[in-house]
Amino acid sequence: MPDRTPYVAANWKMHKTAAEAARFVDALLPRIAATQNEVVICPSFLALAEVVERSRGSAVRVAAQNMHEAESGAFTGEVSAPMLVEAGVDAVILGHSERRQHFGETDEALARKVPAALAAGLEPILCVGETEEARDAGQTDGVLERQLQADLAGVDPGRLAGVVVAYEPIWAIGTGRTATLEQAREAIGFIRDTLRARGAAAEQVRILYGGSVKPANAGELMAQSEIDGALVGGASLDPGDFAAIVAAA
Question: Taking the domains of the chain in order of start, what are their residue ranges?
């Protein structure tokens, strides 16, 4: 199996002002100074510059939570990849379930966004996952395959290694429920198999688990060889909790 560096990302969603973000980074950095893992913080747009500045020279990289596929244009309220690059951002979350559910993010839009991010030099963190209804109906594999095939349709197989995939069972996000180890392994194994059909670069893709990850369950989740890290929501808002998850990876 290829040596894939563990990857732990903090998705703050709509939390933390720039001042609060600065205090978080100052508290986090001493706690993770010795880590060999890849650590990514995903703040709100207004806190990006503060986190970029505070984390310079550290193990922390910075990601945005969304972007538009166009470089510029009449898209009120949107942010482009070149703007993020100029701000010092390294990566971007795309297709998070909350963007899909609440803001109408479609697979067609993601098919444009993912290659646009790669072309700009940003690392896409592509989120995929099923609803509770889909899982109960035995449709998890079908949902994952449809999302992956559609969202990555515009990505050349040779560039696939530049994408991070986060499996987030929607029924486990913010609910306190976590997929069992078997459920997580099966879903992430299916994602890897689906990516393999696109070429050898699939072996380099980091596949994360996201869904109520916290210090109490991070160790057993990330001890699974199929799981390369975590996309952390609520537990990433506390520097001590997030540092413990980074250590568990």
Answer: 7-248
